[in-house]
Specification:
Length: 191
Amino acid sequence: AISNFKIVEYKKLWDTGEAVTDESKEATTSFKFEIIKGLKLPRLRPEAEKLLGELETEFTQSNFDGVDVHYDENKISLMVSEELSFEGGKYDLRKEVEPLLEQLIPSINNSNFDVSVEGHSDNLTHPSIDNMELSLRRALVVARFLMAKGVEREKISVAGYGPHRPIADNATLEGRKINRRVEINIMINNE
């Protein structure tokens, strides 16, 4: 389930078990979290909380449609849609997504967290390229961009899952559109 939280609301909910009311809200901007069903909100380590705050500041000041930021106890995930980052069936990075990726670099470099870049596709076949290969090449392109801009190679791992990890129904046009994505996962529990 995806819900909108604000960092101040997250902290209050964790500390007191009570949601923040409209009267007590501080002036902050929204940040999306994905809470896995059945899990209690984990207490973040200070470094993870700092990173989450930095990402909130960076991405709420930007206007990037096609990017969702989700959180669970192990990672902060940026899910970048195909339409923002690549042309259909191709793996050349669009120039429009480069500023978004560049915004991640200081936060990644100033943390001890590893980054997993994952490519995903829908289940339709492409005449020119296999979905597994396409998803891996897209993940590699994003990882190489991050490394070229200064992220340490040792911090990055890459995987291509093709159609095997859908987050939406591949039977619908909208679902397939959502499944065609690259996830940049900042692994906050990789001590």
